[in-house]
Design goal:
With about 375 residues, this protein is α/β, with parallel strands linked by helices. It has two domains: about 5-125, 3-Layer(aba) Sandwich (Rossmann fold); about 130-290, Dihydrodipicolinate Reductase, domain 2 (2-Layer Sandwich). Helix content is about 30%, strand content about 25%. The chain has nine helices and 17 strands. It has helices at about 15-25, 40-50, 60-65, 80-90, 105-115, 130-140, 175-195, 305-315, 320-340; strands at about 5-10, 30-35, 55, 70-75, 95, 120-125, 150-155, 195-205, 210, 220-225, 230-235, 240-245, 255-260, 265-270, 280, 290, 345. The strands form three sheets. Strands 16-15-14-13-7-12-11-8-17 form a nine-stranded mixed β-sheet. Strands 3-2-1-4-5-6 form a six-stranded parallel β-sheet, sandwiched between helices. β5, α5 and β6 (about 120-125) form a beta-alpha-beta unit. α4 (about 80-90) packs parallel to α5 (about 105-115), α5 runs antiparallel to α9 (about 320-340) and α7 (about 175-195) crosses α9. The relative contact order is 0.17. The model has no long low-confidence stretch (mean pLDDT about 95).
């Protein structure tokens, strides 16, 4: 590894989400996708040919590639930590899909290994780097709603099994609506209200089994291993608070709702699972909100990988840090424990939140 010039990237996992990453990573001038690996080498080859990536094969072959500096870990959640540790052992930085880990112990181990090796373990979601959420972060920092005090987030749906051909893993331990959708909403809250101090929660499970509604396995039933509805009360170190609902058992769909209220107004964010969208600012005694268009780069998944690459070259922290991802994981685990125990749970970890991106930050610029 030279430490200069474009940053070489290798992707492990050639499934559906890899397309979203490769659409962008193969167009950013500051990174170069060199290799795609998958347990199904045929699938890796198909993605490599589609995107003009020169190498494909096994994970071992990718980790041995001398020019791959960042491993983009798109494996299933249960494999995230194992694959990330393999990448660190091979001298590679890591970008992982969410969640960071499935439990605190493995998450701490990954952070400790990152510190020991001096390598980075950045983690999705990177949606908070999109124009929509960054514009909201800048508006709050500018004082447009005064001091932020409270927040409300809602994700409610009937569940992904109606459209996902293999939804089993979304109802397995380490998933469910809290761990699958929570990272988007909780990262947005932490970005704007700071680290979490303690949480309380309730949870329920509507059905012990679910039925796949599409694809070759349509009609097949599978077990539900986790709560499918979680309601959380969150207290932040700043004294602010939030209420959050994460549900796979609502026939009324309410998704993408994030509202933060302050002493002088309320801001409604765009969907935290997207990278764009107008914002609304509401004031007392007004009938219509002020609509604020998003300002900044509008791309998709992969922006965090690019930010990581540029941060490595500049020797500065990336924004989607492993510490932030671990804190969000700690919050989610604490919410699950609070629901099970019926009491407040203190969140022991903390994090320093990065400043907002400059609205002129340009992924299409060649800066390295």
């Amino acid at each position: 590894m030279t430490g200069t010039g474009r940053v070489g990237v290798g992707v492990i996992g050639a499934g559906v989400i890899s397309t979203q990453y490769l659409d962008n990573l193969t167009t950013f001038p500051d990174v170069e996708v060199l290799f795609i690996a998958d347990l199904d080498v045929t699938r890796a080859r198909a993605q490599a040919e589609k995107y003009g990536v020169p190498g494909f094969g096994t994970t071992e072959e990718l980790l041995a590639h001398p020019d791959v500096e960042i491993v983009v870990n798109l494996t299933i959640p249960a494999a995230h930590v194992e694959v990330a540790l393999q990448a660190l052992a091979a001298g590679k930085h890591v970008w992982s899909e969410k969640p960071f880990a499935l439990d605190r112990g493995s998450g701490r181990r990954l952070l400790e290994e990152s510190k020991r090796t001096g390598l980075r373990v950045a983690t999705a979601p990177d949606t908070f780097l999109g124009a929509g959420l960054q514009t909201g972060k800048r508006l709050i920092a500018e004082g447009r709603i005064g001091q932020p005090l409270t927040a409300l987030t809602l994700f409610q749906a009937s569940g992904p099994e109606s459209w996902h051909p293999n939804p089993d893993f979304l109802y397995a331990v380490g998933a469910g609506p809290l761990f699958d959708m929570g990272p988007y909403y909780l990262t947005t809250l932490v970005q704007n209200l700071g680290p979490v101090k303690r949480v309380a929660a309730t949870a329920s499970t509507s059905r012990e089994t679910r039925i796949i509604g599409s694809g070759p396995r349509a009609g097949e039933s599978f077990p539900v291993e986790v709560p499918t509805h979680v309601s959380a009360l969150i207290e932040f170190e700043s004294g602010a608070s939030a209420q959050s609902v994460f549900s796979f058992q609502s026939s009324v769909r309410r998704s993408g709702f994030v509202e933060i209220a302050g002493t002088d107004g309320t801001i409604v964010f765009p969907d935290p699972n997207t990278f764009d969208g107008d914002l609304q600012i509401w004031r007392d005694n007004v009938e219509e909100a002020e609509v604020v268009p998003a300002e900044g780069p509008v791309f998709g998944r992969g922006m965090g990988v690019l930010d990581l690459a540029r941060a490595i070259r500049a020797g500065v922290p990336e924004r989607a840090t492993g510490e932030q991802a671990f804190h969000v994981l700690d919050v989610m685990v604490s919410i699950a424990e609070a629901a099970e125990r019926g009491e407040f749970v203190e969140v022991e970890s903390t994090v320093t939140v990065a400043d907002a991106l400059d609205e002129n930050w340009d992924p299409t610029a060649a800066t390295l």
